[in-house]
Amino acid sequence: MSSRGDSAYRGRFAPSPTGDMHLGSLIAALGSWLRARTAGGTWIIRMEDLDRPREVPGAAVRIIEALAAFGLHSDEPIEYQSTRTPLYAAALARLQASGIGFACRCSRNEIGAGGIHRRCAEAADAARAPAWRVRVPERTQHFNDILQGPQSQDLAAAVGDFVVWRVEDWPAYQLAVVVDDAAQSITEVVRGADLLDSTARQIYLQELLGLPTPAYLHLPLALDAEGHKLSKQHAALPVNPQQPLPAMRAALDFLGFDSALFDGLESPQALLALACCGFDLSRIAPRPAGRLPALH
């Protein structure tokens, strides 16, 4: 535990090094940091570097440097998922031993439209290297999101038997994030609403593995002027760590602050100190996405 105080709150920001930080990433980082700070708790950075084909060389270092330029520092040593494979393999072994985890050699064509797997195709090539999936029951998974409200998902209809270990022989996101959140004693997950759809699967895995379920808070997605989600895949412009104040003000505006409050402040630390005093979740509308204010 961190020595920041007696609060049991533990939050995290978990970027993927598939590109440099953009404003949407900064909003998620600031939102999670503010929740931890206002709770008097611990905030950590976890680098989710498992998507090897999409990883951009040097992006992990640049993300950490950018966070530091915005005054956001991990309270504990930064963890890298690429170094934690034995933890994920142990979780997979438990799923395999229970019979819930099973080898799947189906191709995408054999799975069919929508990619929803319900049973392995008889034509599947037995010589093909398998992915590992978990069996999904016919039930609706319910949970409450702190900001977005009550949520439910019919796992079988929406996602089917889903992959927990990829055919390339590394863990899938859903398994890795569940194992890490438990291992790092995360009490609340604050992230963008693009991951709201993953939450029911993660809660199901937590149940299967006997792991605690943290609280979930999904912030609205930041949209550009054309209404497109800000993302590395869509070439969102990176934030400028050399001039952090415009991006910080825009991100805080998106998180419900009146940007005029920060007039005259000349350092990220000053903005963060004031933001800690005035962060109010009720000012953020419970919506899946929202337009960004202009940088100024």
The CATH class name of the largest domain reads Alpha Beta
Order of helices and strands: EHEHEHEHEEEHEHEHEEHHE
Tell me the radius of gyration.
20 Å
Distance between the termini: 38 Å
Strand content: 15-25%
| Count of discrete alpha- or pi-helical segments spanning 4 or more residues | 9
Q: Outline the biggest β-sheet.
A: 3 strands, parallel
Mean of residue pLDDT values: 88
Shape type: elongated
Secondary-structure-based class equals: alpha/beta
Number of domains: 2
Strand order within the widest sheet?
1-2-3
Low-confidence runs (pLDDT<50, min 5 residues)?
none
Number of strands: 12
CATH homology superfamily of the largest domain: HUPs
Kindly identify the CATH topology of the largest domain: Rossmann fold
CATH arch. level architecture of the largest domain: 3-Layer(aba) Sandwich
Q: Tell me roughly what share of residues is in helical segments.
A: 25-40%
Quick synopsis:
The chain has nine helices and twelve strands. It has 296 residues and is of the alpha/beta class. Strands 1-2-3 form a three-stranded parallel beta sheet, covered by helices on one side.
Describe the structure.
By secondary structure, the chain is an alpha/beta fold. It has two domains: 10-84 and 181-291, HUPs (Rossmann fold, 3-Layer(aba) Sandwich), CATH 3.40.50; 87-174, Glutamyl-tRNA Synthetase, domain 3, CATH 3.90.800.10. Helices cover 31% and strands 18% of the residues. It has nine helices and twelve strands. The chain has helices at residues 23-38, 59-69, 85-98, 108-111, 155-158, 173-183, 199-209, 244-254, 268-278; strands at 10-13, 42-47, 79-80, 101-104, 131-134, 140-145, 149-154, 162-165, 188-192, 215-219, 221-223, 289-291. The strands form five sheets. It has a three-stranded parallel β-sheet, covered by helices on one side. Helix 1 links the parallel strand 1 and strand 2. The chain is elongated, with a radius of gyration of 20 Å. The model has no long low-confidence stretch (mean pLDDT 88).
